[in-house]
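Entry 14. Ran structure prediction on the chain below.
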Amino acid sequence: MRTSRLIFSSLILTVFLAMTAFAQADVPAKIALVDTESFYAQTGGINRIANGYKSLETEFKKDITDLETMAKRLQALQIEVQNLQKPGPVPVKPEAIQVKVEEGQKLQREYAFKQEDVKKRYESREGAIIGPILQDVGKSIGDFAKQKGFTLVMDSGRLFQAQILLYSQDTTDITKEFIQFYNARPAGSATTRPE
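Output, structure tokens:
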């Protein structure tokens, strides 16, 4: 009989503790949405990201100008070849046309090479300049979520694109509030979280 009471008491205690645990776990989740594409806006976005891209633009200005100059020269050569190929009062030697065609082909190869080189260097520098900022933004979203009591923060832009999120109330979008929070912080002030 004592054993039955002990088992019965243990069972009641276990049920009570389980109910208490479920009651505590029944706290509603507080969900927020952030549109990360807004972070990249030149005005109204995250200042450090905008400044990083301005820095990249300045750094690659000469390369971009060189590519634009080469593209204009290619267009001019193409028009020149087309004009030389048109029948006119003075016949043009095929060798003269071929020289221009070869010049255009050479310039086109140089342009493609330079374009690929600039693209690779730009992507490398973008990773070096913008990458750490994006890591800091990610950590700051965690800090902001904890401070505001959010249990889940999702990227609304990506969810809409993937057609996972079909509707949300404006009150769940914390993008502007987060951007203001982040822009007010000194650089690199996100707390580090254990990995």
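The chain is about 70% helix and 5% strand. Will compare against last week's run tomorrow.
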